[in-house]
Amino acid sequence: MAFFLEALLGGLMAGMLYSLVALGFVLIYKASGVFNFAQGAMVLFAALAMARFSGWIPGWLGIEDKFLGNLIAFVMAGALMFVLAWLIERLVLRHLVNQEGVTLLMATLGITYFLDGLGQTIFGSDIYQIDVGMPKDPIFLFEGVFEGGVLVNLEDVYAACVAALLVMVLSLFFQKTSTGRALRAVADDHQAAQSIGIPLNRIWVIVWFVAGITALVAGIIWGSKLGVQFSLTTVALRALPVIILGGLTSVPGAIIGGLIIGVGEKLSEVYLGPYVGGGIEIWFAYVLALVFLLFRPQGLFGEKIIDRV
Question: Which of 181, 186, 201 lies closest to 90 in space, CA to CA?
Fold first, then answer.
């Protein structure tokens, strides 16, 4: 039982991180109706900014306190993501209002390669470390209940708590604030939203900035675990099955989908891997996504598309 709980908790914590990356896709799609292929590049760019700023700031400002240095680096990286959001709206999205979805999709591909090159030009291409003080040592829980206890990585616990808190804040933002309702209106119909006075340009800046902050938090967590390197862009590929499973238009769907895939990967690898030679964790999510594409393409919580003729 203890072994099962270890795998279950590990899957839930990994699932929260998947959900965090998937939220960036959902936020952009809900506000602009475009699938943002640049989300992985945004995670990398934000992580690079955080890693380099946290290394440069002590020398620039003479700050010895590590927490204060990381806090200033986070604020600076967040400000950079806001500037990035403003530039994307000003230079790209503003000129593509009401264009076909494939046009917007190609625009996000261009943004992807631009961010990859810009990040390498500004911050370099080495592997960097992000140290925000999360403990690395594992701990044992429920030692009084199970013999030997349940082994849990404390860093994963902290990361999952941060991800869960951000997911909760974003869910409340979308459901309870006037800006969140305006974002949903823009997603439904750009022209109708503009006709009732919703400023489309400002809404797009807000949603790309929120997605940028989400990418920043995801980049910090993944960078702390794996190091900041250019392969970090592939973390977005791990989120693709999540949004297929949960639904591209659903914030709760991104959360539930991430948890299902995280738990499914861990349990299948632990209990089925020995019988098939291992490696299930690599392809499990994609096979599950393929099943949903065949039988429920809108996902668990996505909106079913009905064409009227």
Answer: 201
Residues with Cβ < 8 Å from 258, sequence gap 6 or more? Answer: 15, 16, 17, 18, 19, 20, 22, 239, 242, 246
**pLDDT tens per residue across span 183-212:** 777 766 666 777 777 777 788 888 888 888
152 in helix, strand or coil?
A: strand
pLDDT at 79 over 90: yes
Residues 27, 253 contacting (CB under 8 angstroms): no
Predicted pLDDT at 233: 75
Higher confidence at residue 238 or residue 75?
75
CA distance 76 to 264: 37
**Other beta carbons less than 10 A from residue 83's beta carbon:** 11
CA 187 – CA 108 distance, rounded (Å): 17
127 burial level (CB within 10 Å; 0-12, 13-18, 19+): middle
Of the candidates 84, 36, 37, 76, the one whose C-alpha atom is nearest the C-alpha of residue 60 is 76
Give the distance from CA 268 to its chain's centroid: 23
| Mean pLDDT computed over every residue of the chain | 81
